[in-house]
Amino acid sequence: MKILVPIKRVVDYNVNVRVKADGSGVDLANVKMSMNPFDEIAVEEAVRLKEAGIATEVVVVSAGVGAAQETLRTAMAIGADRGILVETDADLQPLAVAKLLKAIVDKEAPKLVIAGKQAIDDDANQTGQVLAALLGWAQATFISKLVPGTDEITVTREIDGGLEKLAVKLPAVVTVDLRLNEPRYATLPNIMKAKKKPLETMKPADLGVDAAPRLTTLRVVEPPKRSAGIIVADVGQLVDKLKNVAKVI
Amino acid sequence: MSTFNAPLADMRFVLNEMAGLQEILGFPDFEEVDAETVDAILEEAAKFASEVIDPLNLRGDTDSPVWKNGVVTTNKEYKDAYKLFCENGWHAMPVNPKYGGQGLPHLVNIAVNEMWRSASIAFALCPMLTLGAIEAIRHHASEELKEKYLHKMADGTWSGTMNLTEPQAGSDLTAIRTKAAPDPSGDGTYRITGTKIFITWGEHDMAENIIHLVLARLPNSDPGLKGISLFIVPKYLVNDNGSLGERNDLICSSIEHKLGIHGSVTSVMSYGDNVGAKGWLVGQEGKGVAYMFTMMNHARLNVGLEGVGVAERAYQHALAYARERIQGAIIGDKTKETKPILFHPDVRRLLMSMKSRTEAMRALAYFVAGNMDKAGHHPDAAVRRQSQAYVELLTPVVKGWSTESSIEIANDGIQVHGGNGFIEETGAALYLRDSRITAIYEGTTAIQANDLIGRKTAREKDEAGNVGFTARKLYKDIAAYADALSGDARLGDLGKTLREAVQAQIDATEWAIGIYGSEPQIAHAGSVPYLKLTGIVVGGWLLARSAQVAQAKLAAGATDGYYKAKLATARFFAKHYLVHAKAMATEITQGGESVFGLEEPLF
Q1: Relative to the CA of A126, which of A117, A224, B35, B464 has its CA 20 to 30 Å away?
Q2: What is the ipTM metric for this complex?
Q3: Are B553 and B563 a contacting pair, CB within 8 Å?
Q4: What chain A residue is nearest to B100 in terms of C-alpha separation?
Q5: How many whole angstroms separate alpha carbon B292 and alpha carbon B225?
Q6: What is the pTM of this model?
Q7: B327 CA to chain A: closest CA distance, Å?
């Protein structure tokens, strides 16, 4: 079974994100970038399936700027077999990414797509779902356990109020949650080998996909600063403030 | 506790701009390695250092290895981390590719090694000693011994030690008494008897076997250094098929209780209490000390790197505290608002002093490592010779100056914490305690300074008989650089300060060369201040060059705050350290006689 794992290059989770002075977006200049942590979990799961003899090949795909090659190399250092970069400097929204991925899935014909449940930069949580819909495949989101089978897989989903167990017919798209696994540290020999693994680069136009944004960002602003609290004299004043100032009761 | 973040921006800058990484990666010997791979290695090592090793450090300090009846037990976290470190290929990284290493430039190894040392000197010592033993065996032992031991040592399955010191033989190895006698069976092996002390990681339970390299005297050998030979003495004898055989006649008779590096084991080793420990001769008889010295530059550079690493860690720890500790209004601030102590002038000075010195030390260490690669792999023989000369000259400076400075930097780190710094739970004291050994082992600061002022300067001669030619050339080059920089519109002040400082270095060097033949004692009385002066001047030169690169990048439109920071640290270093050079030269050239001013009975 061939597995395809889409990965995204995002601002590293340790970075304090700053909004650009003109409000047009997040400042990415000289900011440390790394693989979206949920995608790292997806890569790890795919590699474990390969090590268990279930997956035959693990292909990682990214769409975005040329530097995303480094992120693909990181995935290959974890154990992915080869990488595909759809290179574009344009702003990519979830629908566009899903269309690009669909075109690649059509070409590569994997049986399973394992994606992160969302990217930590825009937290859209859409790409996996849209991809499954475009493909007409089964989907299972936020999985915390994956048990492989021949024609179907069994997954455990993290839902409000507990866990849900589902059997999913293949081919399918699954999106992974934090507790699925703990990604390994790449070994030094594998980092060296990753450089020699195949990495194919193409443009959205090569796939016949129009990746132009459908949504317009009006303005990006920092969350309002929390102002200092006040000490109220008694319960009556508290109720009054909640009613008339905070307007929450 | 703060978390360790490897200073990748500064490492990359120094690798590329000061140490010549691009040029080195272009040498035919390194054609397999490219800049992106180096970057990926640095990133992953940084992750491993901060997530796996750094959290062990405090744990190792309080839950240190335990000795009982000759057996030393380490805590579980240490064992797990060591296993992962080996499995992930970091242990073998610097080893020759023939035995499983990656064949990377020293420069790349040095940057990665710095991260291990920042995270935990105590942990990093075990692989460091094993690597030293591997190099000694690889360079000097027979093919048979190499095949038998190196593969399993390279991947960390077996660890290694270096047994030089004995109770009566510290810096003076001629006093070694441990004996080696041909085995009565006539099988070509030897029986070793004697006691070795201060054996780092001499006994532990992280590796399956421990391969001790032991200096010992054969019967009827020369009473001096030439009578000392080197032996491989394994904890468990190794069968011909590579499996472990019976236990050798050696035991760890106790472990030391130390000021710092509590996470590591420092053993007293007893060899041959019963029938004599079985040993195999490395190379030729009488060459043991010479063999040990072939690794000296490496070992000393690595200990100097411990200084850089622990200084960086102490700085990060102090900085984190200075940002979060709110205390008092700032002098001159009319709002009277209480602020983090980072805004108080003297805390600011302490942090700048820690940061700028650490960056100077890193630049110097990487500069030397880059020269090691050029000495070994540059296509031009003249460059190879020149690079080797710089390695020889500056290695004692990296070792001596960086370690001494790291103690001061860790001390400043405690001061930033105020009273809380004196409390162990804050963690700042650990770095001071850990740093203290670095100026002692692998040759004390005085040993480094004697080497620098004597063998590397006043006694160095080229074929034409020119004394101290490497040192004189370097300081002349620095002076020419400073002259040129003095005319720079923005960095002229740096250039002038550097020029005055290097003049002090030149004056002290000429004085030392002049007086060395007639009054070596006076020259050596000033050798440690001379070593510190050299560190400040050469480190200051590299920081001035860094500032110049940063200035050019900013002028070309770079917006990275890193470059602004580099300008600030370089200038701080010049205004606070390079300015001492003149007074230090006076101390060196005029203070020697006063060292002997008090007659011995009057003490």
Answers
A1: A224
A2: 0.91
A3: yes
A4: A189
A5: 12
A6: 0.94
A7: 19
